[in-house]
Amino acid sequence: MINDARRVRMLDVANSLGVSRATVSLVMRGSPLVSATTRESVLAEADRLGYVYNQAAASLRTQRNDVVGLVMPDIVNPLVAEISLGAQEVLNELGYFAAIVNTAENVETQQRLFRTLVQQRVAGVIVIPVLRTASADVAELARSQVPLVVLTRAFPDSGVPFVGTDDTLIGRMGGEHLVEVHGCREVAYFGGNALATPRVSREGSFRETVVAAGASYDKMWSQPFDAGIVDAYRAASALLEKGPPPRGILCHSDNVAFGLLKALQLKGYTPQDCAVVGIDDLLQSQLWTPSVSSIAVQPTEIGRVCARVLLTEIGTPPNGPTTPPPPTLHPRTSCGCNPTNPSL
Amino acid sequence: MINDARRVRMLDVANSLGVSRATVSLVMRGSPLVSATTRESVLAEADRLGYVYNQAAASLRTQRNDVVGLVMPDIVNPLVAEISLGAQEVLNELGYFAAIVNTAENVETQQRLFRTLVQQRVAGVIVIPVLRTASADVAELARSQVPLVVLTRAFPDSGVPFVGTDDTLIGRMGGEHLVEVHGCREVAYFGGNALATPRVSREGSFRETVVAAGASYDKMWSQPFDAGIVDAYRAASALLEKGPPPRGILCHSDNVAFGLLKALQLKGYTPQDCAVVGIDDLLQSQLWTPSVSSIAVQPTEIGRVCARVLLTEIGTPPNGPTTPPPPTLHPRTSCGCNPTNPSL
DNA sequence: ATGCTGATTTAGATCGATCTAAGTGAGGAG
DNA sequence: CTCCTCACTTAGATCGATCTAAATCAGCAT
């Protein structure tokens, strides 16, 4: 392995061929200014010498970069992964590259990654901020001239574009379905971290909706907790030790619903005793026993929207909607809807 | 917004303070060569002028980069996400940054991303190759001097370090459990893409194991297909129309097991009729009805191992094991084990 | 032969940092 | 007072590309 051989540069290709660096540069960028014969010989020579274009050097000169950073709190969460996927799809179409970086729900890591991305002079940043993100951190990022889009939680006074699902509508939809369709007189909002903006919005509008409709709101069952499937199972099991569940429950996510449903099942409760609605509409939800009613948010499309908003900011306006689609409710067995025509 | 103001460079900080660029550079890198007073005034002035370090320029000069590319086929797959997480953890500890890029199981996208990463002069690349990856693509990447690690599928003649689970052992473990523990006389390997290396290895050793133990191997149920949960449900439903299932089934993943179990359940089959074992041990598996027996592969640790192998190649050997841990079987209800002490 | 046109090609400056090797100045030894 | 350290600072070259403005050249009309 010739490892200490110096890397081949444009100059080497140029010298070896008796042309100038500028010509090689034009060929590499596919410029129409060079003649077909020159182009071919340059490409052949570059290939022969094993030349690889140095993007860092080019970026330094041109002051532009086609990498976009996606700063995500937890890529293991399928919702987050799907959002990334949608964003990536649109970015790729317009010649940008998406680099996903994981903050692992950690403020310091997020701050470090913000700095790194700015220092790398990325073309833009899409971020789902971690729970305890300080406004100052986002403001600092925005001040550094990087085109920026935030999801999930808005920072109103920062002027940073925000994309998010209509969480207020989700809470209302869940509340209306449980109270009006199923006639539940006592309901709860189950799960979700107390600091998470979506939980605050959903829980708020859910509570308003059900209280306005004359149902009572179960405070004990509506205590927030981290939204893992096992956490949900444990929390539900503990609560069921103290007494029966409320008549209807809107869960912060489908995973939370899975945990809750298992606990209910083990205690012998059915959807007729406790109607459960989830949020996210995961693929597993249709096959869970009982099949889980869920409110879908179309994360992939949200990701696409984010990318479009960012590109508009960058100055490469793409076509397609720049607001996310409304959430949709998919009634299944877990709330007692028992649809005759399952979606499989 | 002062948008057209030229970016502040080290030179600006230096001039504004009456020192040299070199001094500013030393301060920015935290060198002990500068005096405390100089350091402080430089930092203050940099902050005042809104200076941000230009990593691209630095990398050009130093010929080094602390970004590592993780080329992943499908970040929505929780297994892939966990591997990325583990790799990231170790890379961060040693001062590197992990940038995850998604190939969406597409050969052209993968090739494009390989090129981009090389052009960006990343410190290294960890890749889970897409199904139809040509050896030439990996060879080309390896030839471009980038430290490289591949997972899931080895490219033996390329000399590229490989990290992967012991799929042969997984197949054998599954086979032994079904045949020896549960006494199944007719078994099958259900699901997985025909081109996927893990499927080939697992299915092969599973078949050998069960045949050697005198059980018969159901070819019809062992046809490969894409490993989605809904695909698995449809495939299983279709097969059940033609007749009863084999006595024992090893599934290519837990998601495949979920789909199969739903189809079995709807037809009234129990774990006593058809014992099911999955692979991956997802969190949902413990809460599925019936709880799903599964072979765990510890994806996070595999990710860590990958990063360690890569770092060794780069020349920053970390401590910790550089071979992945062996898979472990977690017996639950779906194979009929019905453990008295559930893991929750 | 001369001048003009349009198509190619190129020299030299530049992007913003780091590195090398040399320079400066204060304090102590001779 | 001079010389030598030692701690700190710096000028100028350099990394590998792009950009600007000018040069070259062939072909053609005058």
Structural class of chain A: alpha/beta
Mean pLDDT of chain A: 95
User: What characterizes the major β-sheet of chain A?
Assistant: 6 strands, mixed
Counted by DSSP, the helix tally of chain A is 13
The top-level CATH class of the largest domain in chain A is Alpha Beta
Which spans of chain A have pLDDT < 50 for at least 5 consecutive residues? none
Helix content of chain A: 40-55%
CATH topology of the largest domain in chain A: Rossmann fold
Q: How many strands of chain A?
A: 11
Q: Based on CA inertia axes, which overall geometry of chain A fits?
A: elongated
What amount of the residues of chain A lies in strands?
5-15%
Say which CATH homologous superfamily of the largest domain in chain A is assigned.
Response regulator
Oligomer status: homodimer
Secondary-structure element string of chain A: HHHHEHEHEHEEHEHEHEHEHEHE
Examine the secondary-structure arrangement and name the CATH architecture of the largest domain in chain A.
Answer: 3-Layer(aba) Sandwich
- Can you tell me the number of structural domains of chain A? 3
Radius of gyration of chain A: 26 Å
Q: Give the termini distance of chain A in whole angstroms.
A: 55 Å
For the biggest β-sheet of chain A, the strand order reads 7-6-8-9-10-11
Which two chains touch over the largest interface? A-B, 57 and 56 residues
